[in-house]
Amino acid sequence: MALNASRNDLASGAIFIAFGTYFALEALRYDFGTPFRMGPGFMPVVLGGILIALGIVVAAKGMGKPDEEAAPPWPFRGIVLVLGTILFFAATIRGLGFIPVVLIAGFATALSSSRNTWLSALIISAGLCALCLLIFVVGLGMIVPLVGPWLRF
Amino acid sequence: MDLFASLGLGFSVALDPVNILYCFIGVLLGTLVGVLPGIGPTATIAMLLPITFSLNPETALIMLAGIYYGAQYGGSTTAILINLPGESSAAVTAIDGYQMARQGRAGPALAAAALGSFFAGSVATFLLAAFAPPLARAALNFGAPEYFSLIVLGLLVSIALAHGSIIKALGMIVLGLLLGMVGQDIYTGTPRFTFGLRELFGGLNFVAVAVGVFGIAEILRNLENEHEREVGVKAVKNLWLTRDDLRRIIMPVLRGTGLGSILGVLPGGGHILSAFASYSAEKRLSKNPGEFGKGAIEGVAGPESANNAAAQTSFIPLMTLGIPAHPVMALMIGAFILQGITPGPNVINEQPALFWGIIASMWIGNLLLVVLNLPLVGLWVKMLSIPYRVLFPAIVLFACIGTFSINQNVYDIYAIAFFGIVGYLLIRFGCEPAPLLLGFVLGPLLEEHLRRAMIISRGDPMIFIERPISATLLIMALAAVLVAVLPSIRRRRAEVFVEDD
């Protein structure tokens, strides 16, 4: 079914509305105050309302005007691996320690490019690990366990 | 203190060997970033902020400033050699610069860009030194209503200069403002939008937001379509300009410097606008406009001077008012704050060594850039052959490690992932990320000054119109929006007329 509207406008409108709604609803639980003495809820409620309105306008303007260019392909592999790596990094940096985390994270992100093979990804991650160790731990004196408590016996 | 005594103080700071070294590292990194597409100065400065934390304030800011104007410079090299502007403001340079390179005149194009930039950078730095102190003195009289109006002006002008849909840009600003409100309320201490997480009480980490929106989102964007870059020009010979070339670039460089210096002060990407303005001015003034687009050296020298002049003068609003003109300046504010300095009109009096040191370092930096760029251009061409598949894992790792090293807070890293995906989606759907970051940085300031102004006026919003400076600023903001809206109305009308025919 062909959609007679700009997917881009509908989608960005929806994102705006979603964020606006969250901020406005959450802020309604805070003290609104008066214009004289504004409470913590005043600005977020007002701005959230404006954002919802802008989202509706953006979506409405996209009606009847389909996008001229075809959407680029979704980089699913990249999204999963890059975001996954960042989450993995956050979850394990304290437990596994610097060296294992950077090695694994570098390997996984390198693989998110279809141009990297297993071997090149391995080389890249080893090189990056050495580089990061040199810059952050040796150079900047970052305090982080090189091998974390999870791996100590 | 008169100007020359102050500059003397500045040079004594900037000529300190340690500061020269970091200035050099800054412009070197900046050139590198400018040359390599796929990573802009915004993401780089965001990633390097944690590194500068251990340096002293002068050194840190000198280095960060160097990255910024170095990137303006480096962007032109790739624009000329491979028709791929590393920086958005170099897009104009690519038009004629690449044509010159194809005709075997890459050398003169690079030299014209370098000399024009050096001249423009030096002049604009002088303007910065001359105009910043009086402006800062004027700004000391600003009260909460004036600051509120000024921030509104800054935000609205930034959308006027952004390309694409104005409503989307407005939406991005408002979203940024809202994200800036996460954390404890300044007056009551009420935690807002924190999901009960103590780590979010201090607000979202802006390095995480900047790295997510400008770094990770950009990587995802590049992974959509992977293709190798082609380096057409392998070696650059003959960097010298002929006497004829020199004669042709003098006026464009002067005009570009003037345009860039003025437009650079405007919030929201004056350097991009100034490059376009200079290009169209040169084309109109040229005796043979037909040459433009086919390798006219004026089309390289003018815009390059303009964007470098603008890069320097965009420091004026930051150093005098504490208001960033664009996202990179927003990060500079972050750098000031990390160092425990509140940017604004007081910096010049309380930290004269810092203020004048940064200004003086810009001359040194510009000189270093000429030395770095012209003789070493072969090295930069080689850099272009670093494949992206090696580069982006490095960016991701640097982003994570750097952000983590600021506060040792893992929630900052979760925030990178969140803003990476949100930023990617928004960019994909045609929203520009720059207004979001500006809104995010200015949000808390906007709220603080609005609330303070309303307390002063006892709840009467007329205070913003009754105070003359504030009223003028608001009228300018309104004018900026009108100017932004008008051309699109005109264009749409034009389209309607075409269809009628």
TrEMBL record, chain A:
<protein>
    <recommendedName>
        <fullName>DUF1468 domain-containing protein</fullName>
    </recommendedName>
</protein>
<feature type="transmembrane region" description="Helical">
    <location>
        <begin position="12"/>
        <end position="30"/>
    </location>
</feature>
<feature type="transmembrane region" description="Helical">
    <location>
        <begin position="42"/>
        <end position="60"/>
    </location>
</feature>
<keyword id="KW-1133">Transmembrane helix</keyword>
<keyword id="KW-0472">Membrane</keyword>
<feature type="transmembrane region" description="Helical">
    <location>
        <begin position="119"/>
        <end position="147"/>
    </location>
</feature>
<dbReference type="InterPro" id="IPR009936">
    <property type="entry name" value="DUF1468"/>
</dbReference>
<feature type="transmembrane region" description="Helical">
    <location>
        <begin position="80"/>
        <end position="107"/>
    </location>
</feature>
<dbReference type="Pfam" id="PF07331">
    <property type="entry name" value="TctB"/>
</dbReference>
<keyword id="KW-0812">Transmembrane</keyword>
<feature type="domain" description="DUF1468">
    <location>
        <begin position="11"/>
        <end position="145"/>
    </location>
</feature>
TrEMBL record, chain B:
<keyword id="KW-0812">Transmembrane</keyword>
<feature type="transmembrane region" description="Helical">
    <location>
        <begin position="257"/>
        <end position="279"/>
    </location>
</feature>
<dbReference type="InterPro" id="IPR002823">
    <property type="entry name" value="DUF112_TM"/>
</dbReference>
<feature type="transmembrane region" description="Helical">
    <location>
        <begin position="413"/>
        <end position="430"/>
    </location>
</feature>
<keyword id="KW-1133">Transmembrane helix</keyword>
<feature type="transmembrane region" description="Helical">
    <location>
        <begin position="200"/>
        <end position="220"/>
    </location>
</feature>
<protein>
    <submittedName>
        <fullName>TctA family transporter</fullName>
    </submittedName>
</protein>
<feature type="transmembrane region" description="Helical">
    <location>
        <begin position="323"/>
        <end position="341"/>
    </location>
</feature>
<feature type="transmembrane region" description="Helical">
    <location>
        <begin position="469"/>
        <end position="489"/>
    </location>
</feature>
<feature type="transmembrane region" description="Helical">
    <location>
        <begin position="109"/>
        <end position="132"/>
    </location>
</feature>
<dbReference type="Pfam" id="PF01970">
    <property type="entry name" value="TctA"/>
</dbReference>
<feature type="transmembrane region" description="Helical">
    <location>
        <begin position="353"/>
        <end position="374"/>
    </location>
</feature>
<feature type="domain" description="DUF112">
    <location>
        <begin position="20"/>
        <end position="438"/>
    </location>
</feature>
<feature type="transmembrane region" description="Helical">
    <location>
        <begin position="386"/>
        <end position="406"/>
    </location>
</feature>
<keyword id="KW-0472">Membrane</keyword>
